[in-house]
Amino acid sequence: MCGIVGAIARRNVAKILLEGLSRLEYRGYDSSGMAINNANGVHAHRAVGKVQALKNKCEEAPLDGHIGIAHTRWATHGAPAEHNAHPHISNDRIAVVHNGIIENYESLRENLIAKGYQFASETDTEVVVHLIDTYLKPGVSLLEAVILATKELRGAYALGVISKEDPDMLVA
Q: What's the pTM value of the predicted model, to 2 decimals?
């Protein structure tokens, strides 16, 4: 079963996010990941298997920032694989974690491909992050972009969203 963790703090949130994911392990999952926003943008690690695999990646290449999102995934769209693990990122500026199902993701995906977006996963979540990206323009806040994008989504879902465009905001 999927789980979302988000954190905003004055200190690095990487350990907070990893602790949150560890506390969700009892629920069952096939992969995990986290994204952190800092002065250099949005950066992420994803791993298949236990949260320990993600912790190992974070030890090898630490992520540092005061705002972040994390996720444990139970595959619904796409096989258990690193490219399908969350978070998904669009244009190196927005990261999304997602629980639930986007029922109209196939038609949204077709529209986004027609606009030039490329997909690296088989998930409905990647549709969400690219859709938010289409609305995030100068003068539009991350919150406004998420609200506009969710008006197009059909299904039952929860989201965690961060963006380098609004470095102090986490939309949930």
A: 0.94
